[in-house]
Amino acid sequence: MILEMLLFAALLVGGYFLLHVTFLKLPRCKSAVKLHGKTAIITGANTGIGKTTAMDLARRGARVILACRDRRRAEAAAQEIIQETGNSQVIFMQLDLASLKSVRSFAEDFLRSESRLDLLINNAGLMNGGKTEDGFGMIFGVNHLGHFLLTVLLLERLKASGRSRVVTVASKAYEMGKVDFNCLTTHKDVALGDSDLQLFYKYCHSKLCNVLFTYELAKRLQGSNVTCYSLHPGAIKTEIGRYAGFWWSLMMKPIIFLFFVDSESGAQTTLHCALEPGIEHASGQYFSCCAPKLNIESKATDDAVAKKLWELSESFCGLA
C-alpha cells in the first residue's frame, strides 16, 4: 500500500514537472538588441512583469523610467535594478493612473526633463473595486483610460525620437470582454457591481479596451515611425489580485500556485514586442507567446467600436 502511494506520488510529481516543461513553458524573447542612448517608460514597474521588463531593458543599456504610484516600492525596485545591472540610469517618476491630473503631471514632468522616448510600455493593471479620482470605475480608469491619456500626451515625443514603440499589456481575458457604451456614458464604467466575479468581468472588459485601443492607435500612427502592439503575457503569478476577496483568493491561490508561471516568463512577449526587429508590419496586432495571434476574435478588430471607444476616451480625458 505504501509502495503504491509512493509510486502514485512520484507519477504526480513527474506529470506536474512534464506539464511545466511542455504545455506551461513559454517561449523567450530572442532579441539581442542593445538600447544604449534609448529611453523607456514602464508603468507599474515596481513589481511583477513590469519590474522584470525594467530589469531586462536596463541590462541592455536603456534609460528606464519606472512610472509608479508607490514611491517607497518604486525607489526600492530602482535601487535593486541598478545594483543588479550596473546601469545607474533607472529613475522613479510618480504616476497614479487612477488620477488624470497625475497622468498629466507625469507627462509634463517627463517632457520637460527627458529629450526622447523610444519605448512606452503600458504594463500596469489591477482588478480592484471602487472609483478613480475622476469618478471612473477603478479597473476601467487604470487599465484603459489612464494609459490612453498617457500615450496620447507622449505621442509627439515618440514620433520625434525616430523608430519607437508603444506596447500595451492586455490579456487573453479580452475574449470574455465587451464594450457597453451605454454603461460607460451613464456610469463611467464598463459594468456594474463590485463582487469578485463582477470585478473579474470588468477586468476582461478593460483588456478588450486595451486591444481595441492598440488596434485604433496603429491606424492613427500610419505614416509615422511609431508602431504599437498589445499582448497576452500568459498565466502569470503577479500581484494583480492582491485585493481580491477571501473566497476568490481561496479558490484561485491553489490554481495560481500550481499552474501559473513566474514574471520572468510573463515578461517575454512584452520584451519581444518592444525589441524584436522586423515586426513593424504587425503594428496594431495582438501578440501571445512572442508571436502575433492570427485568429483573434472579431470584436477585437471592430473598426466602429475601436473608433467610438477612442473618441469617448478623448471626451472622458477632456481632449475632444
Automatic annotation (TrEMBL):
A Pfam family hit: adh_short
InterPro entries with a match to the protein in the record: NAD(P)-bd_dom_sf, SDR_fam
Keyword Membrane appears in the UniProt entry: no
Keyword annotations from UniProtKB, A to Z: Oxidoreductase
GO molecular function: oxidoreductase activity
Family label: Belongs to the short-chain dehydrogenases/reductases (SDR) family.
Listed name of the protein: Dehydrogenase/reductase (SDR family) member 13a, tandem duplicate 1
Organism: Sander lucioperca
